[in-house]
Structures are given as structure tokens and as C-alpha cells.
Amino acid sequence: MIGIELLDDPRADPAAVRKELQDIARLNDLFGGTRAVVRELETIFQKAGKAEGGNGTGTTWTLLDVGTGLGDIPRAAAGAARRHGITLRLVGVELNRAAAAAARAADGAGRLALVLGDGGALPLRPRSVDVVIASQVLHHLPRDVAVRWIATFGALARRAVILADLRRSRVAMAGLWLASYPLGFSGVTRHDGVVSLRRGYTRGEFNEMLVSAGVLPVARYRPGFRVVAAWETSDASHR
After folding, report:
1. Is 111 buried (19+), middle (13-18) or exposed (0-12) by CB count in 10 A?
2. Residue 238 located in a structural domain
3. d(Cα 74, Cα 59) in Å, to the nearest integer?
């Protein structure tokens, strides 16, 4: 693994974890992290509505977000789903206790159920949730572990899996470093953001992990130096 990030440390100071997660949520909103996931979900929502002969009104799905942070992305997903007549039951997974506590505090409406656990060893049956998403999670793992997690996500999801992570780029590293000052990010966030980008993936590297996990190479770049892979677990994109 390259470098050390605050969120890799289970003993990290809870206040520092909360501040970094707040900064990450802002980065997701400003620089495409949230949109990268929601865009893929909207395609799946639209397709489901057509297949069901309408707009999906009255349908309830379960969305599992592994490494949910403050839960900002699943809440945005729920808003997108409502536009297509779908209600999402949101479940977030966090390995870091401080992060899980921060997510609970941020979820004032109680829309996000929190599970404390390892994303590769969840106490869930195969095909027990509709959609699994994981955003900016895999780069925290060694490649062989990331491959196992991807395979696990594919086994859990009835409908689809959406993975989003960072595209490795020196331009993005420099841009994040410079932008962090006017945006008021902490020095820890500045450091960890650059480490995260150094740990990021090229599309080819992401596709290699997908293939190793038994998935066709469907990764593509999105704005904001993102790399995304989405596939339906019932179609030919999954072997």
C-alpha cells in the first residue's frame, strides 16, 4: 500500500475522522464523486422502470453502501430514486467505529441504517440486497483483497453493483492540494487526498481487478478524475 491515511487507522481521533469525512463529502459534491455514482444508478432506475412497464412507482429497493463515510452518496441516491418512483432502503457499512458514529450523527432523519463490519465479510445472504455501491473504498485495500470484495459485492446484489474510485493523476494531486486552501480543508484531508490519488487506478488497472473477480472489464473514466464500473448482476456483464 502507498502511504497512510487517517481513515486506515481504527484508533484515529473521532473528531479528526469526522472533520475529514465532512471534507470528503464536500469533495464528492464539488468534484464529481457523488455524480459519478448517481449517474450510473439513474441508468439502472430508468431501465428497471421500462422493464416493469411504468415508472416503478411503489417499488422499494435496498441499497448497500460499503464504506459509506457520512452517508452523503446513498442519500443522494435516494433522491434520484424518488424521481423514478423508487424508494430506497439505505444501509451503510463502515469498518471504522468513529466513521460509523459520524455517519449516524450526520443522518438526522434516520434514513441510513448503519452496520459496523468488514465489506468483504458481511453477514448477508447472496442476492439479499438490490444494489451494492462502493465509492472511494477499494483504494484503501491491497489489490488481492479488493478483488475479493468485488466478487462479494457481485454475489450480494440482486440487481446491480456500482464501484467508483479515483483516477490516479498528478494533475489531480496538484489541483486538490491547491484547492484545499480556499476550501478550508484540514491539513490531514490535504495529505490524505493526495495519498488517495496516488493509490488511485487507471482504467486498465481497474479492469484487471474486475476480470480477476469474474466481471467483464466495464470500467470507464468520468469527470473529476473518477473511474467507475457498473454492471447488472443478472446480465452478461457478470460471468
Report:
1. middle
2. no
3. 17
Computed from CA positions of residues 28, 32, 33, 39, in that sequence, does the dihedral angle turn out positive or negative? positive
Do the domain assignments include residue 192?
yes
Domain hosting residue 119, numbered range: 6-232
Residue 1 lies in a domain: no
Q: Work out the number of other CB atoms within 10 angstroms of the CB of residue 174.
A: 12
- Considering only CA atoms, which of 171, 177, 201, 174 is closest in space to residue 191? 177
Pairing of strands 157-166, 220-222: unpaired
- Residue 178: C-alpha distances to residues 10, 147, 195, 201, 202 (Å): 28, 33, 15, 22, 23
Q: How many domains does the chain have?
A: 1
Cell matching residue 238: 457478470
pLDDT tens, per residue, the chain with 239 residues = 788 999 999 899 999 999 999 999 999 999 999 999 999 999 999 988 776 655 555 689 999 999 999 999 999 999 999 999 999 999 999 999 999 999 999 987 788 999 999 998 998 999 999 999 999 999 999 999 999 999 999 999 999 999 999 999 999 999 999 999 999 999 999 999 999 999 999 999 999 999 999 999 999 999 999 999 999 997 534 44
Helix ranges (DSSP H) in 141-183: 143-156, 170-179
Query: How does DSSP classify residue 131?
Result: E
Instruction: Say how far apart CA 16 and CA 188 lie, in whole Å.
Output: 8
Judge whether 174 lies within some domain.
yes
Residue 117, domain CATH: 3.40.50.150
